[in-house]
């Protein structure tokens, strides 16, 4: 069975939370993303034979998210043969761009294809969530669901899991600025208070409802008015250098809103046009100029499609992205 063709899957980076939707809202990006290649093997269990584009990740299938996802799928389906996996990282870890989610989603997608498509893409979300549990100690779905499904995705409920695919109802451009410090999701979650004051809760669910309504009604003003997070952003933003200045610069340059991407340290800003998104990018980059902090930055649309199969590998090493 060795040396058979690899199934190659790509899954994109994602922005989770989107300000007011902590753990329940996320959207996919065009780029960057991760690839997982999978093929059958005579060696029982899961073997990770290559990890490219990044150093320091474990190749132990019980420690690497792609192995964890594959092992869970094989156990549930009682797969007898072995599987060989390769991970090609196109994005840094600890960036707030859903790095572990992209690997987990690509693994679930590649494995599903290799095993004859026993699951729908929606059904793969629970498997990819196992990768998130491994990476951060929390099986949140607001990165893996949009990475698998594309567009915007609402996680209406975790128990039972109810994932609502909103697609891309309105044209939006996303500016990402990643100040290159590593911030682990587990740390960024551990500092959060466990209780929410009622007043702040009321604001937050008003904004979440407003944001989703704004997306569906294509109402940019409502989207802009709703992109706020007064609960988690104040607690987390202290971990992100120059956050307040960069956010103010983004809004000043015309962004509809700006916040922390996932658990940080990346910032995201949404704009109604590509031209504005590029101005926003420049304004945010200017804030970091001469700060001694290296940046990765992207301007991306929200794509309809999430994880997909590849004929040709498209990954670029996470270490090769342009540093401004
Ligand atoms: N919703 C998660 C969090 C996303 O904010 O911790 C992590 O990328």
Explained architecture:
There is one protein chain. By secondary structure, this protein is of the alpha+beta class. The chain has 2 domains: 3-167, Ribosomal Protein S5, domain 2 (2-Layer Sandwich); 173-301, Alpha-Beta Plaits (2-Layer Sandwich). Helices cover 35% and strands 25% of the residues. The chain contains 10 helices and 11 strands. It has helices at 65-77, 99-114, 121-136, 144-149, 185-190, 198-217, 220-226, 233-236, 243-252, 274-288; strands at 7-16, 25-41, 46-52, 82-88, 152-158, 161-167, 173-179, 257-260, 267-271, 295-301, 308-309. Helix 2 (99-114) crosses helix 3. The chain is globular, with a radius of gyration of 19 Å. 51% of the residues are buried. It binds L-homoserine. L-homoserine (HSE) binds at residues 16-17, 22-23, 98, 140, 142-143, 185, 188-189, 262-263.
List keywords for this structure.
324 residues, binds L-homoserine, 10 helices, 2 domains, Ribosomal Protein S5, domain 2, alpha+beta, 4-stranded antiparallel beta sheet, 7-stranded mixed beta sheet, Alpha-Beta Plaits
Major sheet description: 7 strands, mixed
Which architecture of the largest domain would the CATH scheme give at its second level?
A: 2-Layer Sandwich
Q: Give the overall form.
A: globular
Query: What kind of oligomer do you see?
Result: single chain
For the residues shown, what is the average pLDDT? Answer: 94
Gyration radius, to the nearest Å? 19 Å
Strand content: 15-25%
Structural class comes to alpha+beta
Strand count: 11
| Residue share in helix | 25-40%
What top-tier CATH class of the largest domain fits best? Alpha Beta
CATH topology of the largest domain: Ribosomal Protein S5, domain 2
Spell the H/E element sequence. Answer: EEEHEHHHEEEHHHHHEEHEE
Q: Give the names of the bound compounds.
A: L-homoserine
Domain count, please report it.
Answer: 2
Tally of helical segments: 10
N-end to C-end Cα span: 46 Å
Q: Runs with pLDDT <50, length 5+?
A: 316-324
């Amino acid at each position: 069975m060795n040396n058979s063709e690899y199934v190659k899957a790509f899954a994109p980076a994602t922005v989770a939370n989107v300000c007011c939707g902590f753990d329940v809202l996320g959207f996919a990006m065009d780029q960057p993303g991760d690839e997982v290649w999978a093929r059958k093997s005579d060696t029982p269990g899961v073997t990770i034979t290559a990890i490219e584009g990044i150093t320091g990740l474990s190749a132990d299938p019980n420690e690497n998210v792609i192995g964890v996802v594959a092992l869970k799928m094989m156990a549930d389906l009682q797969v007898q043969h072995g599987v060989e996996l390769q991970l090609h990282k196109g994005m840094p870890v600890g960036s707030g761009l859903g790095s572990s989610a992209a690997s987990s989603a690509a693994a679930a997608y590649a494995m599903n294809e290799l095993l004859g498509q026993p699951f729908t893409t929606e059904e793969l979300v629970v498997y990819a969530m196992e990768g998130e549990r491994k990476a951060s100690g929390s099986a949140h779905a607001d990165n893996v669901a949009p990475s698998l499904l594309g567009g915007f995705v609402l996680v209406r409920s975790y128990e039972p899991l109810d994932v609502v695919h909103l697609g891309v109802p309105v044209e939006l451009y996303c500016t990402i600025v990643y100040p290159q410090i590593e911030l682990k999701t587990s740390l960024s979650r551990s500092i959060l208070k466990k209780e929410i004051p009622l007043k702040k809760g009321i604001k937050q669910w008003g904004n979440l409802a407003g944001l989703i309504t704004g997306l569906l009604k294509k109402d940019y003003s409502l989207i802009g008015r709703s992109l706020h997070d007064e609960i988690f952003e104040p607690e987390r933003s202290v971990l992100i250098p120059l956050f307040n200045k960069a956010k103010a610069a983004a809004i000043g340059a015309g962004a509809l809103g700006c916040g922390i991407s996932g658990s940080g340290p990346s910032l995201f800003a949404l704009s109604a046009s590509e031209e504005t998104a590029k101005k926003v990018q420049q304004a945010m980059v200017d804030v970091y100029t001469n700060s001694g902090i290296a940046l990765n930055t992207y301007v991306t649309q929200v794509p309809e499609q999430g994880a997909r199969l590849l004929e040709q590998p498209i990954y670029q090493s996470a270490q090769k992205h342009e540093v401004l």
